[in-house]
Amino acid sequence: MIKYQEINLDNCSKELQFLLKLLNDRNDVSNLLEAFHAIINWQEFIKLVYFHKVYPTIYLKFSREDSTFLPMKVKEQIHQLYVNNTFKMLTLSKEMDDINKALYERNIRVIMLKGPALSYQLYGDLSSRTSNDLDILIPFHELERTRSILQSKGYQLEYEPPRKLKDWQKRNHHLEFLHKEKNCKVEVHWRLHPGPSKEPSFEELWNNRKTVYITDKPIYTLDEETLFLYLITHGARHGWFRIRWLTDIMQMIKSNPELVQNPLRVSEYQAFPLFQQTVHLLERTKLISVSYSIKINKRSKMLAQKAFTFINERIDFYHPPSKEWDKEGIKYLFEIKPFAQKLDFFVRKFAANSWDAEVLPLPLALHFLYIPLRPFLWLWRVIIKQKVSFRRL
To answer: CA end-to-end span of the chain, whole Å?
Structure first.
């Protein structure tokens, strides 16, 4: 069993300590280079920078330095990562604009999540943040039309979840499309998070949307308070294993400290424990120098300790290196749920679902039989090795 301890940077590698200090804007880069240059493994440091996807920030800090303590080869490697990311973001931006225009012409409302839009919204440019794909949010009733538009543009659905029963649209929250020639992935969301969870409706998000101009066409994104809520819950749901997600929160707080001092949206949608987890992580990792005097409860501290272990051990949350880490990830995902969601998790175990219906289709009047048959249906799926995707609930 993996043991979690209080967050203590002294127990971390020198490379991680150096990286965290660099990401704090209040620390002097020249002094840090002088203090750490002789005690860190520079190639290990570059691996950390790449894993946590913070090379745009690190490059911008190093580019202003002319220190003899910074090896030229290290500077060049991080510069190349920065250049590659800039081209990637420009390509994604063009694709985002094309998809946005296609949906707009067919009167499909779309809100851009993350990707180039988020980089521009948080940092004011496209090159200061990394992204691997595009995430768009649409009303659920427009899903099939959106799917048809993407497929006409060469995108293919990567996985089709069973749709035998209506539960599928709550158990899932997005579909993934891949354009093989462009090597571009688009996630089409109809919810911000997997259900069931308490979150704003699309209509509310649309009415409060923010407009960003990256090209000549308007791009719609989440308003600031909802974006803060979304980034906190998204980061928590991924175990915060990439420091990049924490630096996004840092950037928002730096621009608007009121988000931390008066987090109304966070409280409204039952995410206050995750908000406390985030603040505790930022303070204990010393990514921020300001203490907000927020009382952190025991549960949020425990969640922060687990998340920091994922960061420290470099655990890719959705590609864990072992079964033990996989189990820890599943436990963590359950622990971050509010009580109502935990209760619903168990209730849903006794309800008919699309995976059961795919193996053994039954008429509506006989759906009650799925409950006693569930162990046998599960065993049947294992035996015949059906390609059924079990999303972590």
So the answer is: 22
User: Helix H segments across the chain?
Assistant: 14-23, 29-36, 42-51, 55-63, 72-105, 115-123, 143-152, 168-171, 202-207, 224-237, 243-255, 258-261, 264-268, 272-284, 298-312, 323-335, 339-348, 354-359, 370-384
Q: What is the mean pLDDT of the chain?
A: 88
Query: How much is the pLDDT for 51?
Result: 97
Q: What is the mean pLDDT of residues 243-250?
A: 97
Q: Is the pLDDT of residue 203 over 60?
A: yes
What are 274-310's pLDDT values in tens digits? Answer: 999 999 999 999 999 887 878 899 999 999 999 999 9
Q: What is the C-alpha separation between 122 and 115, in angstroms, rounded?
A: 11
**For residue 374, which phi and psi values (nearest 5 degrees)?**
-55, -45
User: Quick count: other Cβ atoms within 10 Å of Cβ 225?
Assistant: 19
- By the 8 A CB rule, do 219 and 213 touch? yes
Residues 6+ apart with CB under 8 A from 350: 371
Residue 347 is classified by DSSP as: H
pLDDT at 389 > cutoff 60:
no
Question: Would you call the peptide bond into 196 cis, given omega within 30 degrees of 0 as the criterion?
Answer: yes
Global pTM value: 0.89
Distance of alpha carbon 11 from alpha carbon 63, whole angstroms: 30
Order of strands across the sheet that contains 184-189: 111-113, 133-137, 184-189, 174-179, 156-157
Q: What is the DSSP string of 367-391?
A: GGGHHHHHHHHHHHHHHHT------
Residue 387 has pLDDT above 70, yes or no: no
Q: Which two tokens stand for residue 66?
A: 């002319």
Exposed/middle/buried for residue 6 (C-beta within 10 Å: 0-12, 13-18, 19+): exposed
**What gap in Å lies between CA 222 and CA 228, rounded to an integer?**
9
Higher pLDDT, 386 or 62: 62
Radius of gyration (C-alpha) of the chain in whole angstroms: 22
